[in-house]
Structures are given as structure tokens and as C-alpha cells.
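ok so for the tutorial part 2 we go from a plain amino acid sequence to predicted C-alpha cells. step 1 is just haveing the sequence, like this:
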Amino acid sequence: MNPKELAKAIAAAAADKKAKDILLLNMVGLSPVTDYFMICSAQSATQVRAIADSIEDKLAETHGILPSHKEGYTEGNWILMDYGDCVAHIFRETERDFYNLEQLWADAPSEAYVETEGEA
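step 2 — the prediction. this is what the C-alpha cells look like for a chain of 120 residues:
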């Protein structure tokens, strides 16, 4: 699975739990750490955790991979999941507005994730 396919698989798993405003940032050439960021929003800490659980479960089940690192699960305001080629950022809406990764990485080409028929 190439990095963009991984990012889309993560986004699809987030969409399964009604994540909002899913965005993929192409970090190639901008970050030595990862090729993609998947950024999404949720309305509550419970939904943030549900999205993280969905991502972890679906990628383990369908691709046999787990995140190498996960932060923020207990608080549920911003969960970071590191899958190497893609880092997932799952925010409560207020935290996403505050940290504004889209502006911080404004040089990164971005693509809104749109779920297509047959995914999910």
C-alpha cells in the first residue's frame, strides 16, 4: 500500500464514524517524518475516541498494521496516530480551530476526502 492509499484508508475509517471536514495533506518534501497527514474533526471526546478506534480496528483487520505511536486517547481532545507514511490527527472542533494545522502547513498540497461508493 502506498502512502496515499494508506491516507485514504485512514480517512475512510474516520468517515465510518462520521468524522467531519476530513482533509489529506501531502507532506512529501515538507516533513522528514511522514508523507501524509489525515486531519479530521469530531464533536465530542467520545466521538474522537470512536474515530481513533475505528481507524485502529479497520487498519489492523484489513491491512494488518497498527500505529507505531498513539497520543491523547485518554483526554480525547486531539488524538495523534502514527502510521509511518501517514499521521492521523483527530481533533475536537475547538482544538482543531486552535491548533490550525492546515495554516501551519499551508505549503502542503491539500485534498478534501470525499467518500466514494463502495467504501466504508
